[in-house]
Design brief:
Elements (H helix, E strand, L loop, with lengths): L7 H8 L3 H13 L3 E4 L2 E4 L11 H19 L4 H8 L24 H11 L9 E2 L2 E2 L3 E7 L4 H13 L5 H15 L4 E6 L8 H13 L7 E3 L12 H8 L3 E3 L6 E9 L3 H12 L4 E9 L7
Parallel strand pairs: 5-10, 6-9, 9-10
Antiparallel strand pairs: 1-2, 3-4, 7-8
Helix pairs in contact: 7-8
Length: 300
């Protein structure tokens, strides 16, 4: 039995689980007398296996709820009547107002609504929260689009994992449009590319072409000084941050405001770690641009 005291971060690094999942698991293990809390850390106090049978009824109920959600989506009958019957009211009748009761009475979608929907999935903000000496590392961060299920994401995947050819010019054009739309009044001193683990020179080539399109200098100053695992192989921020610790360096002193470019932003840890190195080398303000970002709950 391992009796060392471990912090949440220690456990995150060992297991790859999120802190929320770990806290839920530890609370149950503590309730079963298998671990004990020591201040803010945890220690095993029993070598017994946890009783997993207590979760079976919960899992079964969750499965039934999911199946019922699918039936609700697929039903051609009144949706309100369907819900009422599921909740135990057999006397409910058709509501007369849901999409199944009035399939032809829905108004056409206006151009304003369509424009708002397009804006919601275009140029999403990348949520970078890291600070250095109490100051935010990045002023703002954007992506052209989301990665999954979009033309941008499909194009990145095709060039990154199949052809290994430079990203097409239309991605450079859209990147320039994003910079002008959101940061048109920012006086950038140059553009910096994030060194890649798997993309070869694709990001560097992208950043050079983007800099040329914007009339800015490409600054070949950021380098990777040690091998790291691909971030997508890791499952939580603690692992990803540890993977990139002391992985980047700057070749020359910096000044002014810089635009930092990468292909895909997931957790944002790569941007954050690169940003700290750039700020430490003298960069005053940083803005981040990725071709695409993955979807997270904080996008809503």
């Amino acid at each position: 039995m391992q009796t060392e005291v471990l912090s949440i971060r220690d456990l995150s690094l060992k297991t790859g689980l999120s802190q929320t999942a770990l806290r839920n698991i530890l609370a149950d293990l503590e309730d079963q007398g298998i671990v004990a809390k020591v201040a803010t850390d945890y220690r095993a106090i029993s070598s017994e296996m946890p009783d997993l049978s207590r979760y079976e009824p919960i899992r079964e109920q969750n499965r039934r709820d999911l199946e019922e959600m699918v039936r609700y989506v697929e039903t051609s009958l009144c949706r309100m009547e369907h819900i009422c019957h599921y909740l135990g009211d057999p006397t409910a009748s058709s509501c007369g107002v849901c999409d199944n009761c009035t399939p032809r009475n829905w108004p056409p979608v206006s151009e304003d609504v369509l424009a708002s929907a397009r804006a919601f999935v275009s140029h999403p903000r990348i949520h970078l929260k890291s600070k250095l000496k109490g100051t935010k590392v990045y002023q703002d961060a954007r992506a052209l689009s989301y990665y999954n299920g979009t033309r941008v994401g499909e194009t990145i995947s095709h060039h990154k994992y199949e052809t290994r050819q430079p990203f097409p010019e239309w991605l450079v054009d859209e990147g320039a449009q994003v910079v002008k739309k959101y940061w048109g009044d920012v006086a950038f001193a140059g553009v910096v590319a994030v060194p890649s683990t798997k993309s070869g020179d694709l990001v560097r080539d992208l950043a050079e072409r983007l800099a040329s399109k914007l009339g800015l200098s490409f600054l070949d100053v950021l380098v990777k000084i040690r091998h790291t695992r691909p971030q997508k192989e890791l499952t939580n921020r603690a692992q990803k941050r540890q993977n990139l610790q002391k992985a980047f360096a700057v070749k020359a002193p910096l000044r002014g405001t810089l635009l930092v470019v990468d292909d895909v932003a997931d957790s944002g840890v790569t941007f954050e770690e690169v940003g700290k190195v750039l700020k430490g080398a003298g960069a005053e303000h940083l803005y981040a641009l990725a071709l695409a970002k993955t979807r997270h709950s904080d996008d809503l």
